[in-house]
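Priority: low. Protein: Lysine exporter LysO family protein. Input follows.
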Amino acid sequence: MLSGLLIVLLPLLLGYLVRVRSTRLLNLINRAVNGSVYLILLFMGVSLAGLENLSSQLSRLGGNALLLFSITTVLNLGALWWLSRRVALKAGGSPVVENAPTSKLAAMQGSLMLVGVVAGGVAVGLLLGPLIGEALFTTADWLAEWVLYALLVLIGCQLRNSGMPLKQILLNRLGLAIAVTLALSSLLAGLLAAPLLSLSWNEGLAMASGFGWYSLSAILIGDQLGPLMGGVAFFNDLTRELLAFILIPLVIHRHTALAIGYGGATSMDFTLPVIQQHGGVACVPIAVVSGFILSLLSPPLILFFLSLSG
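Result:
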């Protein structure tokens, strides 16, 4: 367990130690993060193509992902709604941020593109698999793992240079409360879904610990439980992001904590522009803190729960 945790946490820590003052270099890091995510998902698609009885396996993948997502969403929304009624947090008190995405379709375009990348990887695997053989899928798994390590270094660097000191994160009680509520309700959903997915209790908890970080959960879960479960984790977490884009504008003024929290780890990056636009700048630090904490929790929790199988 400790070796697995170190393998994932060490790149994050190494990246976090790097202080970047150049805006140009930070932009390059941001682009490299996006490129790494696309590469990982492309390789994951190639690995999926190596499954036997692919059509029936993909049908099972979709059914399992829908089941896990449905249970998780019901519990997340219920817990965050409860929290929203108990905290003094209202959106709209500050001017909204300009130049944010103005339509749900524009906001979701990047997420839908990720699905296309996975589908492209499956197509590549189906075309090249018969020519290259098993070596293609083994190489894809190996490359995905190393790209993940590079991605973790870059993400650690992003976190360090996000302008959010650790002291400010730890003292932001609203962001912490939202993150803890989302995490606990997600883990409960994993426990409930585990027997329905024919998984052990700890594997169910691992599946629920992505908190929206689909590139990480897909690779870590896929490495231990196979590409099918890695695909389930990916689509469960990606669908969270897609629903968040729709949900945030509808509920942020009445249930601000729910709107900020449902996106999980994505509240500090992909769904942040939508939170900015519809909730105002006062919501931004809370969203960043919540997403930051969930991003830090996700890797060790996934690896810890998976290690209990051994």
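Residues 54-84 form the longest helix (31 residues). Residues 93-102 have pLDDT under 50 and may be disordered.
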